[in-house]
TrEMBL record:
Its cofactor is pyridoxal 5'-phosphate. Belongs to the ACC deaminase/D-cysteine desulfhydrase family. This is D-cysteine desulfhydrase. Pfam families: PALP. GO terms for molecular function: D-cysteine desulfhydrase activity. Keywords: Lyase, Mitochondrion, Pyridoxal phosphate, Transit peptide. It catalyses: D-cysteine + H2O = hydrogen sulfide + pyruvate + NH4(+) + H(+). It comes from Olea europaea subsp. europaea. It is found in: Mitochondrion. One of its GO terms (cellular component) is mitochondrion. It is an enzyme of class 4 (lyase). InterPro entries: ACCD_DCysDesulf, D-Cys_desShydrase, TrpB-like_PALP, TrpB-like_PALP_sf. The keyword Transit peptide applies.
């Protein structure tokens, strides 16, 4: 395996300093009707999140503009509304009838001044990690459609499944409680831990705080039985108890969930339209863990005017599996396109799902120290690592291109990596207070 010496010195990596960046956008730009004040030392692309149909927006203009009218307070969060798709996606079928507002959209885009990029290459970040706190990340975009469907079907509880530190399961547990639905999680863990209390680390803490019901299954059982059969077993049990369960698949990745990132493409288009200086993205880079995000991004980019080439870095399974899985999602929407024609998938799983090499964790640490951008170790961290490695190995393929990297969240997953990260971080010491400094009891108040 090739090794790289990442140079993240402050001199070569100054992410939000306009003076040091060759960035064409010198201010934050919103719509002409609603200009917003400049924010020094930040470059962010924002827009109102309006539908192509003026009276049918999924999020009202007042609620989502950067500077809402204080005279007209709105309460759009956690409301369900009729959904109107982008005009370029109106032929897809089925089209969701409703969507819930569960997040804070649009998420910002800003330039990411990574060092040692190929000649003329620019990288931007789409901050889906900032879509909320408890509901941050890419999963919430899918849940906006999936939970609207669950409510429409009269569900009183939600079932979903994932790894022991699943971001999707945490987001589902929180969103379900927002909507007064119980949540049942099937979490995959090691066979030595399957009979033990799973603890309160990272996503588990949030899930258990909001009262999610957790069933543990070993990785070996999961591999033999499969996620569909496992959720079916729990669904049958709950039906026998008189409940009305609604099953959401791994990662929320089915054809309905795919609409979350079709809608994200519309959001990106609208953000670019509101930018003073023209910005066109040649490439979109994103992590792939269950397939729904890449299916939505790729078909949306293909159908819309965005026309960016989508690169996915899979963090589990292999590219062949995800080409086939994404194809199933596209066929479920009658998209009429081959997944292989609209997305390029590369392997970035390294040691395996949710497992990291020291080199990968060092990369995450250095990115955070240099830029303040914290990548999660399971998804975006591996995808960014793979992107930078690919650029180093094949610089000609990236020269002069403008790249949008989708940060899909997952911050809580870092708390499960504290032991591995401990040797990589330092910067602490006991403060040296010279004996000549006056001391008097009670001088310092401890609040």
């Amino acid at each position: 395996m090739l090794c790289y010496n990442w140079n993240f010195s402050r001199g070569s990596f100054n992410i939000l300093n306009p003076a040091a960046a060759s960035f064409p956008i010198q201010s934050i730009i919103n719509s002409k009707k609603n200009p917003i004040k400049l924010i020094p030392k930040q470059e962010i692309i924002r827009s109102s999140y309006s539908s192509s149909t003026a009276n049918s927006s999924t999020r009202s203009k007042t609620a989502m503009e950067a500077v809402p009218n204080p005279q007209k307070p709105t309460f759009e969060f956690l409301t369900k509304k009729p959904y109107v798709p982008p005009s370029w996606a109106s032929h897809l079928n089925p089209i969701p009838s409703h969507v819930f507002s569960l997040s804070h959209f649009p998420t910002p885009i800003h330039k990411w001044n990574l060092p040692n990029l190929p000649k003329g290459t620019e990288v931007y970040l789409k901050r889906d990690d900032l879509s909320g706190m408890q509901l941050s990340g890419n999963k919430v975009r899918k849940l906006e459609f999936l939970l609207a469907d669950a409510v429409a079907h009269g569900a009183d509880c939600i079932i979903t499944i994932g790894g022991i530190q699943s971001n999707h399961c945490r987001a589902t547990a929180v969103a379900a409680k927002y909507l007064n639905l119980d949540c049942y999680l099937i979490l995959r863990t090691s066979k030595v831990l399957v009979d033990k209390d799973p603890g309160l680390t990272g996503n588990l803490l949030v899930e258990r705080l909001v009262g999610a019901h957790i069933d543990l299954v070993s990785k070996e059982e999961y591999a033999k039985v499969g996620s569909v059969a496992l959720t079916d077993v729990l669904k049958a049990k709950l039906l026998n108890e008189g409940r009305k369960p609604y099953v959401i698949p791994v990662g929320g990745s089915n054809s309905l969930g795919t609409w979350g990132y079709i809608e994200a493409v519309r959001e990106i288009e609208e953000q670019l339209q509101d930018v003073k200086d023209e910005v066109v993205f040649d490439d979109i880079v994103v992590a792939c863990g269950s397939g729904g995000t890449i299916a939505g991004l790729s078909v949306g980019s293909w159908l819309s005017d965005l026309k960016a080439k989508v690169h996915a870095y899979c963090v589990c399974d292999d590219p062949e599996y995800f080409y086939e899985y994404a194809q199933g999602l596209l066929d479920g929407l009658h998209a009429g396109v081959s997944s292989r024609d609209i997305v390029t998938i590369q392997n970035a799983k390294g040691l395996g799902y949710a497992m990291n090499t020291t080199e990968e964790l060092k990369f995450v640490q250095e990115i955070a120290e240099a830029s303040g951008v914290v990548l999660d170790p399971v998804y975006s961290g591996k995808a960014a690592f793979g992107m930078i490695r690919n650029m180093a190995e094949n610089p000609k393929n990236w020269e002069g291109r403008r790249v949008l990297f989708i940060h899909t969240g997952g911050l809580l997953g870092l708390f499960d990596k504290t032991q591995e990260l401990a040797p990589l971080v330092g910067n602490w010491r006991r403060m040296d207070i010279h004996e000549s400094i006056p001391r008097k009891e009670g001088t310092g108040k401890m609040f």
